Amino acid sequence: MANFADVLVKNEITGKSIDVTRKLQDGTPDYNTVLSAGAQEQINLASTDVSLVIDAPGETDAKLYWVKVDAAVDAETIYSRTKSNWTFRIIPNTLEPEIPTTFNISIGDIEPPG
Fold this sequence. Notes:
By secondary structure, the protein is mainly β. It has one domain (5-108): Immunoglobulin-like (Sandwich), CATH 2.60.40. It is 0% helix and 50% strand. The chain is built from no helices and nine strands. The protein has strands at residues 5-12, 18-23, 29-35, 40-45, 51-55, 66-71, 75-80, 85-90, 102-108.
């Protein structure tokens, strides 16, 4: 089973930053970064027990933004209207462990192409 992925997160929201947090199975954050408008960062998800949480900017409702996910591994995306965030994680799969897995996430205020 492929149990890790390199995730490229792109912030395409005009003039606003997003908060990106990697969390361990127990919910403890082990990495946090703020991506300014136009910025991107690659973050490693080291197992199916690790998740990536992206918070909408400021007090803004996450439903106002478009999210595009392109994953080469089985993945789960959870949208929380209450917390105004998105959670992404790898789910158990049948891919060979040595297959490189990637995951691209773009968040923007206009619909992403294709």
